[in-house]
Design brief:
Two copies of one chain form a homodimer.
Chain A lengths: L1 H11 L4 H10 L1 E5 L4 E3 L7 E7 L1 E7 L5 E8 L3 E2 L2 H6 L6 E4 L3 E7 H10 L1 H27 L2 H11 L3 H4 L2 H8 L3 H13 L1
Antiparallel strand pairs in A: 1-8, 2-7, 3-6, 3-8, 4-5, 4-7
Helix pairs in contact in A: 4-5, 8-9
Chain B binds a DNA duplex (30 and 30 nucleotides) through α9.
DNA sequence: GTAAAAACTTGATATAGATCAAGAGTTTGA
DNA sequence: TCAAACTCTTGATCTATATCAAGTTTTTAC
């Protein structure tokens, strides 16, 4: 399980043997069964979390009890609530497992220590953050400019493979539409 | 004009005199008249840009010719297209001045050099990126969960002062609604 | 293996917000 | 300083998507 993270590190950063071992020394393994929570609304998030296997979703629940999916994260991605982590305030989000999931956690103190100690690690982390920001910008742009159908086509184009492992209800929520609308769109586009 | 940026730096990072001077040595001043472009779609963005005075908007134009405002940036904020900068690809965005505007530019090579040379500067830049990412997440969340009226109230609450200096048409576009809808919302909420 | 729960589909109807249109204010620049 | 060009408002109508409802299929858990 740790090998998956090690492989990711080797691809993304040039690390010495000693640095790799230093990183591994702080890694905490965690397993989640399907539907199990990684974070619940109101808790303060304290980790940097990397997924080695499986899939989680980050979502909020509004006053009416409806869920709004903010993001999906699968193996080789990071997850967590950066706002709660950075400001040390109770999270507005829930994160739970869509499939049985395996993660590597670092407490944020340890993670920051690694960033300070290992420049290559720090650079990697910054590059990831840049890409996350760009992805968020693109999502905003899509939500402003695309129709429901275009949003769906854009999604399956950008994240092929997701559609088959994530329930449609959740994808609909992520795209900002109802499950019924997504169902109808899928029927239409299948025809073409 | 540079003093505004210097003050910003002093607040956000602990810099030695020498470091401050090093940063200043790379700064390029730029003025934009209202409606003048900082970046046009198709160009590759090559700077890190800080606004010392004024206001710019970042937007796309779709096939029908409609503009979609992605963001506003005012004095003491940064602007630019991070995707174009990072991937060195033609930008999908336009950036132009809503008011006469003054900026400090750094070519990205110089900016990266400063990040490498000055750890405190690098940390500041990362902190800004983190905050930008959190803001983007919050905007996505708002677009998924709020009604048109709630989006507007959320906007004026979060950015008081913006409403008075930015034309309503542009605010409507930023919020993902038509100017007519925003006009009606303003009329309604004024009553209450 | 099977009953209960969850996920998906389909149809009928409702609605928030878009579009179209036209008039009133406001800003801009020669 | 005044005409042209924006910007905002208001009304009438339209439409994409939501909501409600009921049936079917798939998954889950004992």
């Amino acid at each position: 399980m740790y090998e998956i993270f090690q492989k990711y590190l080797d691809e993304k950063a040039e690390l010495t043997q000693a640095e790799s071992e230093r990183i591994q020394s702080f890694a905490i393994s965690k397993k989640l069964r399907k539907r199990q929570y990684l974070l619940q609304e109101g808790d303060i998030w304290k980790y940097d979390a990397f997924i080695t296997q499986g899939c989680v979703r980050t979502y909020t629940v509004d006053e009416k009890g409806s869920e709004h999916v903010n993001s999906f994260s699968i193996e080789n991605w990071w997850t967590g609530d950066r706002e709660s982590l950075m400001l040390q305030q109770p999270s507005r989000f829930n994160i739970d497992a869509i499939e049985d999931t395996e993660l590597i956690l670092f407490t944020h103190e340890n993670f920051e220590l690694l960033c300070r100690e290992i420049p290559a690690f720090n650079n990697m982390v910054n590059a990831i953050l840049q890409r996350s920001f760009i992805a968020a910008q693109n999502r905003i742009q899509a939500s402003l400019t695309l129709t429901a159908e275009e949003k769906y086509l854009n999604f399956i184009n950008k994240y092929p493979g997701f559609a088959s492992r994530i329930p449609q209800t959740m994808i609909a929520s992520y795209l900002g539409m109802t499950p019924e609308t997504l169902s109808r769109i899928r029927k239409q586009t299948a025809k073409k």
